[in-house]
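Annotated sample (chain length 474).
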Amino acid sequence: MDFSNPGQGLASAGVEANVLGSASGVSTQTLSLGDGGSITVYFAGGIHNGPNADFVVFENAFFDVFELFAELAFIDVGSNGTDYARFEVDALNPFPVLPFGTLDPTDYSGLAGRHASPLGTGFDLADLAFDPLVQSGTVDLTNVRYVRVTDVIGDGSTVDAIGNPIFDPYATAFANGGFDLDAVGVIHVPEPTPSTGLLLGLFALFASVARGSRTRGPAGPPLSLSAILVSTLLASPALALTATFDDLGLASESFENGAGLSGGYTSGGAFFENVYTASFDGFTGFAASTTTDMTTPGFGNQFSNITGGGAGGSAGFGIYYLTGRIILPSVLTVLGAEFTNTTYAALSMSTGDAFAKRFGGATGEDEDYFRLLVEGIDAAGLSTGIVELMLADYRSADNSLDYVLDQWTYLDLSGFGAIKELAFGFESSDVGDFGINTPQYFAIDNLVTTPEPGTALLFGIGLAGLARRRAPGR
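Output written by the structure step:
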C-alpha cells in the first residue's frame, strides 16, 4: 500500500472484473493498482492507428474546487505481449502532492488519469511513431493488442522523458491507493468486418451513455465515451484476463507451495488447484514462485525455472507438479500460455541425477524425450482435444539439434474451443518400475482467457482486463 513501506501490505480495492465492459463512472467499481502496480488489458480485435486518439483510459478523478484529485499512470502498448512502447511523459509540477492533495492537470501530458470522471484520457498511437520498437516493427501500430497501465509512484522517484520528477498524491497508504482503473475504450480497430461493425453499432445505439474516469492535459480535448460511440460505433471485441502470477503478492525470491492456501489460488480469474501435504511440506498441482535459481540441481530447487524469472521479464510464475487442473471461472476460450522447464527438471535431463537418466545417455545417442500434454475439458467434463509441447527432445539424427527447453515458449490453446478446465500430463522416454523417472514439473506464465466469440461481440466498447500486476498500494 506504500512503496516505501511494503510491510503495510497490498492495495486490495476492486477485482479484475471491474475493468470489464464499459466505464461505470462509479468510484467503487474500479481496480486499484497500488504504488507502481500495473494491469495489462488485452484486445482480441486489436487497436488501429487512426486519426487523433485511438483508445481511451478511464479513471475516477474528481475536481476539488479548482484543481483535480488525480492519481496518474504510465501507458504502454504492445503487439506481442512481451515488448511494449511507452507514451512519452512531460511533468511540469516541481512540488510534492499531499495524500489528499490536488494538482493542475495541465502540468502533465502523456499520462492517464488527467481528466475528471466521466471523461477519459485519449491516446494517439501516432505519437509512438519514432519509438525504436515501432521503427523495428516489433510494435505494430496497425495492430496493437495489449495496453499496459502502470501506476506512477507519486513521490518523485519516477520521472518524465527529460528526468523531471513526477508528483501526484503520495503517500496514499490505504486499500484503494494508486491508479484506479475503470475501463479502457477503443476508438479505432483494425479493418472490422461489416457484420462485426453492424453488431457493435447496434449495441452502441442501445447502450446507455457510459461514464468513465479522468483525463487531462495539453495533449487534446477530453473524450467522453458517448462521443466515442457516436464517432465510431465500433469497439474491440471481447477481452479477457491473463494469469500472470504477479497478482499474488509474492515477495522476491519466495514461493507459495500451498502451506498458506486452501486448495489452490486464483490468478487472472483462473483457479489453480493445489494439494498441500503438511507432513512433508510438499504439494501437487500448482505452486507459485518468484525464485530465480537457474543453476542449483536437485529437488531442493523445485520452485525455480530454467530461464531465471517470469515470461517477458516479469517476476511471478506458476510451478506444476504431477497432477492438478486449472479451473476457469466460466466457459471460456483459452488463447494460450507460456511454458518452460523448471530448473530441477531441466538440469535432471541435462546431467542426470540419482533418480533419472541423463538425456542422450553417455554417448548422446539415446533418443530421449519429455513431452507435456495439455488437455481441454468442456463444461460436461469431456475432452475437447490435446496439445503437445516438447520440454526436451533428443530424437534427431543430428545430435546438435537435441535440446532441453530453456526459454519461455508460447503454446496456442485456442483450438480447444469453449472449455471449463485444463488438465495436464507427461510422457517420457525415461520410465522405471514406478512410472516416469523424469521430474514431472513445468513452469507456466501468462495464461490468456477470453469469452466465447459470440459473447465477445456484445461487449461493445467496454474493454476487458487481462493480467493484473498489483504492487504495494498507496
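Annotation: DSSP finds five helices and 32 strands in the chain.
Annotation: Residues 6-240+456-469 form one domain.
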